[in-house]
Amino acid sequence: MSYLFRGRGQSLSQPAKDKNRVTTQLLPETSWNNDPLPRGSPPENKVVVTISRQFGSGGSEIGRIVAQESGLLYLDNAIIGEVAKRLGVNEEQAARLDEQTAGAVGHVLEALQSSSPFNLNYNTLLKPTAAPAQAREAAYLRLTQRVILELATEGDAVIIGRGSQFLLHGAPRTLHIYIFAPLEYRSEQVTKHKQLARAAALELIERRDYEHNAYLSRYYGGNQNQPYLYHLLINTGLFTHELAADLIKQALPLVKGIIN
User: How far is Cα 237 from Cα 216, in angstroms, rounded to an integer?
Assistant: First the structure.
């Protein structure tokens, strides 16, 4: 993947053996592509950090700080860009599908039908007479999973969201982080950065929380509010972004010892 991003990796989870293990649940319709997915295990001398976050908690910014100060590749919108490139659509269309479900983006899927066809086996999915919207949405999901697994396999990366805590659960040398904050803190941050009134900020937070949880529930059978998915949970209502990044950086030397 270095030729794609000029930056700088475990299998999909097996069935859980106890209540503290999570099973990655992929939709049946994602099985249309028989190409095996990458393992997602980084090389022994490299690490991967996944950051799941509540909207407005600062998780993306914290991930950026960790990546910059630790010499890791930061992967957030770059994932959208790579998926868009493989789909043959523009990034704006792909972004509107990002961490969403069919109910929220059906109109986008219709627009995709008139775009450039997929490469390889994806080309039939966007034809007007081909598969229904859910199958085309599944194609986007499958490509997103593939890109994340390829990047994780290469290693030395900070991956933001997109179900990576499920997709890479149990992967060796992979650190899973959850960033959260009280609603009042989140509303203040969204009000400030989006320049919204408080009521509008709260409405946006509620919508984004719903969309994100619907995405994780539909494709992975869970939600991000499950502590056992993570090695470290950080409340940015208590810690600044810089201190939160420092906590993650302090854990990095231990990550190479994670074998399952």
Answer: 24
Element (H, E) at 180: strand 174-180
| Distance separating alpha carbons of residues 94 and 118, to the nearest angstrom | 13
Predicted TM-score of the model (pTM)? 0.75
| Helices 133-154 & 102-112 angle (0-180, nearest 10) | 90
Q: Residue 235 burial (CB < 10 Å; 0-12/13-18/19+)?
A: middle
Given a contact cutoff of 8 angstroms between Cβ atoms, the answer to whether 76 and 60 are in contact is yes
Tokens of 14: 């097996």
pLDDT for the residue 2: 40
Q: Which token pair is 140?
A: 């986007």
Beta-carbon contacts of residue 139 (< 8 Å; ≥ 6 apart)? 32, 33, 87, 118, 122, 125
User: In degrees rounded to 5, what are phi and psi of residue 160?
Assistant: -95, 120
User: What's the pLDDT tens digit per position in 102-127?
Assistant: 444 443 444 444 444 333 344 444 44
pLDDT tens digits, 61-86: 999 999 999 999 999 888 888 888 88
Cα dist from 228 to 16, 17, 135, whole Å? 12, 14, 31
